[in-house]
Amino acid sequence: MSSTATTEVLSTRRLGRAMLARQLLLEPAHIDVVQAVERIGGLQAQEPASPYIGLWARFASFAAADLDAAIAARRLVKGTLMRATLHLVSASDYRSLWPAIVPMLENQRRQDRVKPPSPARMAALRDRISRYAAEPRSLTELREHVGDLDGLPADELVWWLRRRHPLAHAPAAVPWSFGRRPSLVDAEAWLGPGEWPDTATSSERLVRRYLGAFGPASIADIARWAGLAVRQVRGGVEALDAAGDLRHFRSESGRALLDLTDPPLPDEEVPAPPRLLPMWDSTVLAYDDRTRIVSDADRARIIARNGDTLPVFLVDGVVAGRWWPVTDGGRTRIELEPFRRLASGDRVALEELGDRLARFVEPLEPNVYSRYQRWRQDTR
User: For 149-203, what is each residue's pLDDT tens digit?
Assistant: First the structure.
């Protein structure tokens, strides 16, 4: 790292305020949805409603139709990226980040430890699938088209292809733009011609995007967010540092922290209004050390045994409980599950937010997240 690195220590509370500012959670956003998605480093999207609720939480006034339109116009794209999970990102970020993520995807193994096809076979499969999936195809269609090969069943081959070939999710005419049975399409055909950077350039862009959205942070934090090994992001960090694009800090525990030179770093006493966040919001997932937003004890109460990250609310910038939508007399309402006693002002603010959120989700999916309520008892 740079020999001119500062030794300024940033408190955990100040790190939290920096994250909230960059995640558009201190002041409501008044920007284009694509700009917002880029600013916050993308939205985790395996649950179709979560990107919508995530932007609702960040905008002064958010209409689901605005996000629908950006997805339909292919300005935003859904695909497998960080941590091998589904994310909604800008078309530009999808191209920029994919090459850096591929090594992690290629190293994944199925539980049965079936070996992938040979590189030559995989190259032929990729060429074949890029032509066939130039228009959206269901998983069933992809399996039938690929067929069995060299003793590997079609299901295995499609699993490997989805981790070696950029396939976007095509939107459907359902609430939240995407259903639970995806239609996949070749990303190049979907997005049109454009730059796919080499791995080194992609790594730099990944580090820059992360720090702009979540910094200051450690190299381990960057790696955790991306799902990569520390060594796989170190090159991107070193390239930015050599260019003079990084500043250096330390956490209260002595961790070395990195940041870009220009994003906001607000004072730790800046007020942080209560917020309702969706399942899998990256604010509670994007760090190796998550104490800036959730205590270790509370972390066990918001992440289920299978890794499902439950909907939470923030008070003074940190996780203070969970929330659940329930239907009552044909209407949606939001139930709060605080982890400790709430001040009366905070409860009133959260209940007002809950009423607004209920009216937002009710016409789209009144029982949103209902399948996850089985975790209510297990994670108390």
Answer: 667 788 888 988 998 999 999 999 889 999 989 999 999 999 999 999 999 999 9
Q: Minimal CA–CA distance to 251: which of 220, 212, 283, 207?
A: 220
Find tokens 């297990």 and name the residue: 378
For every residue of 86-132, DSSP letters joined together read EEEEEHHHHHHHHHHHHHHHHT---TT-PPPPPHHHHHHHHHHHHHH
Q: Residues near 202 by Cβ (< 8 Å), separated by ≥ 6? A: 96, 97, 98, 99, 100
Starting at the earlier edge strand, list the strands of the sheet with 183-186.
43-44, 86-90, 76-80, 167-169, 183-186, 137-138
Phi, psi of 167 (to 5 degrees): -120, 120
- Distance from C-alpha of 47 to C-alpha of 280, rounded to nearest angstrom: 8
Boundaries of every domain in the chain: 120-162, 275-378
Give the bridge partners for 87, in sequence order: 44, 79
> DSSP characters for 301-351?
HHB-TT-PBPPEEEETTEEEEEEEEEEETTEEEEEEEESSPPPHHHHHHHH
Please say if the pLDDT value at position 1 is more than 60: no
pLDDT at residue number 147? 84
Residue owning tokens 């998550």: 290
Question: Residue 311: phi, psi to the nearest 5?
Answer: -70, 135
Length, in residues, of the chain:
380
